[in-house]
Structures are given as structure tokens and as C-alpha cells.
TrEMBL record:
Pfam families: DoxX. It is found in: Cell membrane. InterPro entries: DoxX (IPR032808), DoxX-like_oxidoreductase (IPR051907). This is DoxX family protein. It is a multi-pass membrane protein. One of its GO terms (cellular component) is plasma membrane. The lineage of its organism: Archaea, Methanobacteriati, Methanobacteriota, Stenosarchaea group, Halobacteria. It comes from Haloarcula rubra. Keywords: Cell membrane, Membrane, Transmembrane, Transmembrane helix. The chain crosses the membrane at residues 27-48, 60-79, 99-128, 140-159.
């Protein structure tokens, strides 16, 4: 993973022989921070209200996909009719939302949090399947926001990831000693 020198507002990426790039405005970091904080608050709040209220995934999993022409209706039906999976979802959804939200709010382990946030949004996208107004909806847009937060390393912008990455272990910065951490921090 290459890094752009401080003060250079240039993006470039090469995928499959295609190169895209451009210049970004100096205020872009503030917008990336705003996206991280917005999604962090939304997920932390949603998880907290599920934990402190009544939340049960079984009815949603069993019924929602079968009624809306969902291409994954069979998968959702299986999830809703499998007791151990329903129990798992009853814990994983609210606590996952809370921890994803808190990670984004403080800027710690942001890429990992954003990955799981995007994964949850993909599941919500298919669970809430409705293409009456096209295939793009809020769940799809939020998935892209999570991916953008991860891609831009938003945890380094007024977040703890900046300090976690620089933490020295044996005289080396943590991410230099363990490069795989670049995929979960940032």
C-alpha cells in the first residue's frame, strides 16, 4: 500500500490495467471525517437501541425476503428457520452495530469496522430488497460510504488509528512491523 506525501492532494489507482486518478480538494479530509462520524453515530445509536430495547431477528429473517422477490429469499428463509443462526443474529446484529459505530466514532480499527459495516449493509440491502425505484437505495449507498471510509483510511483523520499505527514495537512502528495491520487500521 503506497502512501501519498503529506500535503499532496492526488489520488491514483490501477486495477486491471486501467488507471484512474484525480486531484482532491483540500477540504476532502473533513468530508471523509464527516462520513466516518455520521456512520459511526448511526450504527452506535442503532446498536444501542437494539441492546436496550427489544430486538429479535427471527421474524425479519423468516418473512422479509419471501415477500419481496428477493434473489436471496432461500438464504434468508434458511437463516430465519435455523435456531442457532437466529440466536447468533440476535447477538451479532446489535452488538456488531454498536462496536462498528464506536470504532468509527473514535477512529480505531476503522478499516475492519467499515468492512463489517459494509457487509451488514449488503445483508440489509438484500433483506430489504425493493427495486421498484431502481437497484440503488439507502442500504446500497451506506455500503458505499463504509467502503469509502475504509479506502480513505478515515481512522487516521482525527482518529486513534493514526496513533495505533505509529505505536513502536521493538523500535519499529506497529504497521511496519506487522504490515497486515494496514488492512484493519486506517
Amino acid at each position: 500500500m503506497s502512501t501519498i506525501p503529506s500535503g499532496v492532494n492526488q489520488l491514483e489507482s490501477k486495477v486491471g490495467g486501467l488507471t484512474v486518478g484525480g486531484r482532491v480538494h483540500s477540504l476532502s479530509a473533513w468530508f471523509v471525517l464527516a462520513l466516518r462520524l455520521m456512520m459511526g453515530y448511526a450504527f452506535a445509536y442503532s446498536g444501542f437501541t437494539k441492546i436496550t430495547g427489544e430486538f429479535a431477528a427471527g421474524g425479519y429473517l423468516s418473512n422479509v425476503a419471501a415477500t419481496n422477490g428477493n434473489p436471496l429469499a432461500g438464504l434468508f428463509a434458511w437463516m430465519g428457520s435455523t435456531p442457532w443462526f437466529v440466536e447468533f443474529a440476535n447477538v451479532a446484529v446489535p452488538w456488531g452495530e454498536l462496536f462498528i459505530g464506536l470504532g468509527l466514532l473514535v477512529g480505531a480499527v476503522v478499516r475492519l469496522a467499515a468492512f463489517f459495516g459494509a457487509l451488514m449493509m449488503v445483508m440489509f440491502y438484500f433483506g430489504n430488497w425493493d427495486i421498484a425505484h431502481g437497484v440503488i437505495n439507502g442500504d446500497f449507498a451506506y455500503m458505499l460510504v463504509f467502503l469509502a471510509v475504509a479506502a480513505f483510511g478515515a481512522g487516521r483523520i482525527l482518529g486513534l488509528d493514526k496513533y495505533i499505527e505509529q505505536y513502536e514495537v521493538g523500535g519499529e512502528a506497529l504497521v511496519e512491523r506487522y504490515p497486515v495491520l494496514e488492512y484493519i487500521l486506517g
